Write a sequence for this structure.
């Protein structure tokens, strides 16, 4: 390990400021890496560039090596650069998007995927990943819902913490581990109208109840870095929001890791009208604890001046630099600045059979069987298959934050089916395009003809993968009109039709669900998506995913989420009463609720028992839920425990997930799943910012959101 305090003592102020800056690789080498923001000229001298402390958006390990070598030749202090990248759902072997990973309710799956990504990323020259993104979400119109684990804070936090632990391992210096940066702090998922980069207005109560817990879980899991969000919160940009960055992050949570801005977010303080100029922006960001400025030059241009003017004590600069030198030291960069970066661009580990197996298994476990009127699974002895739709033979299913993943390396549904049922004749018909406004029905006739002649029809539909992700909000999240019309025409020609759908967000499937007897939702499943879909369609794998987010009946219901507060005069499904909480056009509940997901097994929830019907704050309740697999099909079921606090000083959600366990069942196997309920699990953040429980009646249920069963009551004394 290096003596970083000695190194620090020998650095000039400009050299120290260099450690607080991060720029795109394309300022240092020729690269065709995709940029994740603008690339305005930073107005930096070559001298300044020689002092830069970290790099993002490079493409290959060779580029990383070239940048590092050149830097170390020039750097007087021989401080290695830090190389960071958005390894969101895979580095080269892509696995399902995080919103899909949430549907697995399985930290083992998340851990296997993240470990694989870390191994591939290290070979690619990555030392820090800007992952996990744990922004709590409620509005499916927002493009970045695909990066989150969904609308439940408990699930989001568990999935985020699992990623942190898997990426960082026990010892950061171990060759296959990379540092994790949790993001975006805080409340980015609450952008108004789902509009990217828009303002966020959330009460402290809602923030603490839903939007903040997952970040805390990730920091408690040891995340080395945190990235403030682009958005303002109550009018103050997150990056210079002292409530967030000082009171909560530093004072309450005692975070002493590294804070890195989002891309150009320091300059955004000016654009948001909260700083007059660059110098003011630099002051506000540094004052609120931003250690590394990503892709903007305000620290280089003004921090030295601010220190000379006595606005900041030089000690604060040293503290920030030490945090960065310490991370580089613990990553072992002073001993090995290349840290496992492959000498070639195609290390043998990328897309290995073992990695493809991990990706395929994850895709199988994340898929959600939304509807199945006794159509699926299809038989492998089928003779003629009509494979129809824009996703029937489409490689673009790996997801939009695809890092070094390549669409063309994915397995399409057609390829997956060909491998699984090689003797079947496949009639392939695209039927229509995949753009939202496509109106060309010239492919319908041949699609309908193919359907009519086939034994089974597999409709492959959805939104293009570049309709989600950063900057891609949708004003209408309905499955495209032409695809709904194609589905209606095809399923009329052959009712033995199943739809496979792809999306980076919940999409409105109401029309599709009226016209087809089965819907298997794959999200964007990654490199092995088509193979996983084939296995699920033909019963080689049994669907077990449960929705991590609600699917609205109509876009106009957004934001819609399961853990809402009681709604006065809410109406039951199907009714419409005057002076009630009605939608004219649709129900008041989603088409598919959080926690929904079918299986080829038949799970019967037989009983839920409590060990006590009243407890003190010091006692616990043992809950037992008995489930029977009334089928010959082996399968997994995520058994969920929901709680309702019937009356408290704050209105409480009508249902909230407080525990879950994913359980394997053999054929005709009965199991009793046990949970312990403690007083801590009954707490909530009141309007005095106290995390408390209150005596009174509580209800415990199982099943899934909006479909709670076996409810039992108990009293907290
Ligand atoms: C982007 C994203 C952030 C990402 C960063 C670096 O704009 O907001 O999630 O980590 O820039 O690519």
């Amino acid at each position: 390990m290096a003596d970083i305090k000695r190194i620090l003592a020998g650095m000039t102020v400009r050299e120290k400021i260099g450690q607080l800056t991060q720029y795109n690789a394309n300022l240092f080498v020729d690269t065709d890496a995709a940029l994740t923001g603008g690339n305005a000229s930073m107005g930096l001298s070559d001298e300044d560039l020689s002092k830069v402390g970290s790099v993002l958006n490079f493409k290959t390990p060779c580029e990383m090596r070239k940048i590092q070598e050149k830097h170390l030749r020039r750097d007087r202090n021989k401080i290695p650069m830090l190389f960071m990248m958005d390894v969101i759902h895979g580095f080269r072997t892509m696995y399902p998007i995080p919103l899909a990973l949430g549907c697995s309710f399985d930290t083992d799956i998340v851990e296997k995927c993240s470990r694989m990504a870390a191994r591939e990323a290290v070979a690619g020259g990555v030392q820090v990943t800007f992952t996990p993104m744990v922004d709590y979400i409620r509005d499916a119109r927002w493009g970045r819902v695909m990066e989150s684990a969904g609308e439940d804070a408990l699930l989001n936090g568990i999935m985020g913490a699992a990623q942190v632990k898997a990426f960082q391992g026990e010892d950061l210096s171990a060759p296959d581990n990379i540092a994790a940066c949790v993001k975006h702090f805080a409340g980015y998922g609450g952008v108004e109208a789902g509009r990217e980069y828009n303002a966020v207005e959330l009460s402290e109560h809602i923030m603490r109840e839903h939007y903040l817990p997952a970040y805390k879980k990730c920091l408690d899991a040891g995340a080395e870095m945190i990235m403030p969000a682009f958005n303002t919160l109550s009018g103050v940009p997150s990056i210079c929001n002292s409530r967030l960055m000082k009171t909560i992050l530093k004072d309450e949570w005692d975070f002493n890791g590294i804070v890195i801005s989002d891309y150009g977010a320091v300059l955004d303080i000016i654009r948001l009208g909260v700083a007059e100029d660059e110098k003011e922006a630099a002051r506000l960001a540094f004052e609120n604890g931003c250690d590394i400025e990503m892709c903007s030059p305000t620290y280089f241009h003004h921090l030295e001046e601010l220190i000379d003017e006595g606005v900041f004590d030089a000690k604060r600069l040293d503290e920030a630099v030490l945090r960065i030198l310490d991370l580089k030291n613990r990553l072992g960069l002073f001993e090995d600045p290349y840290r496992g970066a492959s000498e070639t661009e195609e290390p043998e580990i990328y897309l290995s059979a073992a990695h493809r197996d991990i990706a395929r298994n994850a895709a199988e476990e994340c898929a959600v069987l939304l509807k199945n009127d006794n159509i699926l699974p299809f038989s492998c002895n089928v003779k003629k298959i009509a494979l129809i739709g824009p996703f029937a033979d489409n490689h673009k299913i790996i997801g939009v934050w695809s890092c070094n993943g390549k669409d063309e390396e994915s397995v399409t549904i057609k390829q997956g089916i060909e491998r699984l049922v090689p003797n079947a004749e496949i009639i392939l018909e695209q039927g229509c395009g995949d753009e939202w406004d496509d109106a060309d029905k010239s492919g319908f006739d041949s699609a309908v003809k193919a359907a009519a002649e086939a034994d089974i029809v597999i409709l492959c539909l959805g939104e293009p993968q570049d309709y989600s992700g950063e900057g891609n909000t949708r004003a209408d999240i309905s499955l495209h009109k032409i695809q709904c019309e194609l589905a209606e025409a095809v399923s009329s020609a052959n009712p033995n039709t199943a739809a496979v759908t792809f999306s980076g967000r919940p999409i409105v499937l109401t029309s599709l669900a009226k016209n087809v007897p089965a819907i298997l939702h794959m999200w964007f499943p990654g490199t092995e998506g088509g193979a996983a879909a084939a296995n699920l369609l033909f019963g080689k794998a049994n669907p077990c995913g449960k929705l991590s987010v609600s699917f609205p009946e109509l876009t106009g219901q957004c934001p819609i989420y399961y853990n809402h507060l009681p709604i006065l005069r809410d109406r039951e499904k199907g009714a419409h009463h005057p002076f009630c909480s009605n939608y004219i056009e649709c129900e008041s509940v989603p088409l598919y609720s959080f926690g929904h997901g079918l299986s080829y097994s038949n799970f019967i929830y037989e009983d839920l028992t409590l060990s006590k019907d009243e407890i003190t704050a010091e006692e616990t309740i043992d809950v037992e839920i008995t489930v029977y697999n009334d089928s010959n099909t082996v399968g997994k079921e995520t058994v969920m425990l929901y709680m309702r606090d019937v009356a408290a000083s704050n209105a409480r959600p009508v249902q909230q997930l407080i525990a879950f366990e994913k359980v394997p069942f053999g054929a005709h196997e009965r199991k009793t799943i046990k949970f312990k309920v403690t007083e801590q699990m009954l707490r909530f953040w009141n309007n005095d910012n106290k995390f408390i429980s209150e005596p009174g009646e509580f209800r415990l249920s199982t099943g899934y959101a909006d479909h709670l069963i076996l409810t039992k009551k108990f009293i907290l004394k």
